[in-house]
Amino acid sequence: MQVITKKQARQFILSKQGLIGAYKFIGKDGAYEYVRQAGCIQFDPVDVCGKNAELTLQSRVRGFRKKMLQDLLYKDRRLFDYADKELSIIPTEDWPYFSSYRDRSLKLGKTFEGMDELKKKAVSFIEENGPVCSDSLPIEGEIYWHSSMHWSGNWGKKSLASRSVLEQLYTDGELIIHHKNGSRKYYDLAKKYLPSDILKAKNPCSKEADFLKWRVLRRIGAVGLLWDKNSTAFLGLYIKAEQRKKILEELTQEGKIMPVTVEGINQPFYYRAEDDSLMRSIIDGSADLKPRMSFIAPLDPLMWDKALILALWDYQYAWEIYTPADKRKYGYYTLPIIFGDRFVGRIEAVSDRKQGVLNVRGLWWEKGVRQSKKLNAALERTLKNFANFNDCQSVADQRKE
């Protein structure tokens, strides 16, 4: 088995992610290609300095603007919203793979008395009136209901009947999210927007075990290197240790993934076989590793496995958004900072779009990071680009001395 250093492992992951060297993802097409590579990027509605999905793309897509993602989702329909790693953004071409989700949803929906009638009423209204949200769908009352999507917070709770039927139709695949207004979702009929060959395509995975194996392979590609450990990188797969071990063995035997050992870590890592040429270039020193600085989203695929980040980078990150203010070590919405092949710090930046100012409320450098002219120039450049991404014309330092 090939043995690599931690530094080489870091460089491989960052190069695969498009976070080091020359930009390999450019503009709207680059944003789409990155989502295809990752399989999915997580959606989160919190917008302090950009939503999570937007932050994920801005860090690695040259020239990325928020409108590009909106167009890919709601104009071009090359991406769609659905459950994968929590609520995610997924390439539309992957719609057929999630057939089992929709089949399960249809079966569960039949267990709720009166749901079929509510679904017919909702579809009829949408056909006549177009996109709706739970407030504009004229279905009254509450029902005791749970969603077949695991990310829903309605499990076993009373919910507005209008919301319940929309989410049921959405998980069934009859509706898609037409657009979002903040965190509010508006739904319309999937058949109006998605190609019939996509909607009618057979499930490429004949067995649920094949679907699970496809998803494991996909998550490995999303991170770059993954190990055979319980990991939030596998969140949403509901996979047991023995299943994971078997799948990794099968994928290795099939030649779809390759094992590698990292010095100092008594645990094999795996990467996709299609990335072997990249691994060779890292090992022989021919890879483009020109340093760039990037601010990384809290739920970025790079950060999915925080134990892996700690093991390879000796960098500990916690998203403190749900931590009480008096117990936070850093800030409400801090972003890790990558420079070259290192995590060099973290930043809390809040955009004031009314005033057109990006306010830096906190900046913490990692121990041992030297304040060089090169580092400071990179920070100034990155802040300027980040302000532009947030439609801000200037940057203000609000750090307390």
Detailed description of the structure:
- The chain has 401 residues and is of the alpha+beta class.
- It folds into 2 domains: 2-77 and 207-397, no CATH class; 93-193, Arc Repressor Mutant, subunit A.
- The chain has helices at 6-17, 27-38, 52-58, 66-74, 99-109, 115-129, 161-172, 196-199, 208-223, 241-253, 276-284, 306-313, 373-389; strands at residues 2-4, 25-26, 41-42, 61-62, 79-84, 86-91, 142-145, 157-160, 175-181, 184-189, 226-227, 257-262, 268-272, 293-295, 334-339, 342-352, 357-365, 394-397.
- A hairpin with a 5-residue loop joins strand 12 and strand 13.
- It is globular.
- 39% of the residues are buried.
What structural class results from the helix and strand content? alpha+beta
Could you give the count of β-strands? 18
User: Nearest-angstrom radius of gyration?
Assistant: 22 Å
Enumerate how many helices there are, as a single number: 13
What's the mean pLDDT score?
94
Q: Helix share of residues?
A: 25-40%
- How is the biggest beta sheet arranged? 5 strands, mixed
Low-confidence stretches: 148-156
The number of distinct structural domains comes to 2
**Termini gap:** 51 Å
Quaternary structure state of the chains depicted:
single chain
- From the spread of the alpha carbons, the general shape counts as globular
Looking at this protein, list some descriptive labels:
401 residues; alpha+beta; 5-stranded mixed beta sheet; Arc Repressor Mutant, subunit A
Helices and strands in order, then pairings?
Blueprint: E1 2-4, H1 6-17, E2 25-26, H2 27-38, E3 41-42, H3 52-58, E4 61-62, H4 66-74, E5 79-84, E6 86-91, H5 99-109, H6 115-129, E7 142-145, E8 157-160, H7 161-172, E9 175-181, E10 184-189, H8 196-199, H9 208-223, E11 226-227, H10 241-253, E12 257-262, E13 268-272, H11 276-284, E14 293-295, H12 306-313, E15 334-339, E16 342-352, E17 357-365, H13 373-389, E18 394-397
Parallel strand pairs: 1-12, 2-4, 17-18
Antiparallel strand pairs: 3-6, 5-6, 7-8, 9-10, 11-13, 12-13, 14-15, 15-16, 16-17
